[in-house]
Write a structure and sequence with these properties.
Helix content: over 70%
Shape: elongated
Number of strands: 0
Low-confidence stretches: none
Amino acid sequence: MQDTRRVRMTKKIIKEAYIELSDSHPDKRMSITDICKAADINRSTFYMHYEDVNQLIKEIEDDLLDRIPYPSEALDSLSKKEQYLDLLEGTFEYIRENKKTFTVLLSRLDNDSFKKKIIGTVLDRYKAITLAKNDTFSKYGYLFCINGIVGMLTEWIKDNFPFSSRDLAILAFNMSVQATKIN
C-alpha cells in the first residue's frame, strides 16, 4: 500500500485511539474492536494497515524510538560532558513531550519488551561515541548505565516530572560517571 497522506492520517488516528484507550484503561488489553470504535473506523480499515494489535504496538514503539534525539557527527565543538548532558537533556525533554505514549508503553503488562527495545536502540545509536572498539568492559558498564537510566525515567514519568530534564540529565550523567569511572 502506498504511503499517501490519507494512509498516514488513518494510521495516526488508529495509533492515537490505541494510546488514548490504553491510557484510560491501563490494565486492559485492547482488542481490534475497541480500537476501531475509538478511532471511528471499520475493522477492514484496521486490517488494511495492520495484521493485529501487536503490529500496531510495534509500529508505535518504532516510531517513538526513531524520533529520540541521537548524537550526530557534528558534536566535536562541545566538551564531552556538555555533549552528553545536551544529548540526555534533549532525550528526556522528548520523553516529557511524549509522556502519554511513553507511559502507555512502559506500563503495559509486557513492558519489559519495550524497555529492552529502548536499551537496544540507545546502545546501538550511542555506542559509536561512547564505546571503544571491542571493549567488553565498556559495553557492560554502558548497559548498566542504560538500565539504570531507564529505571530513573520510568519513575520520573510516574512521578509526573518532579524536576527538569536538565536536572535529570545531570543526575544520570553523574551517576553513570560514578558507576563506570569514565570521564
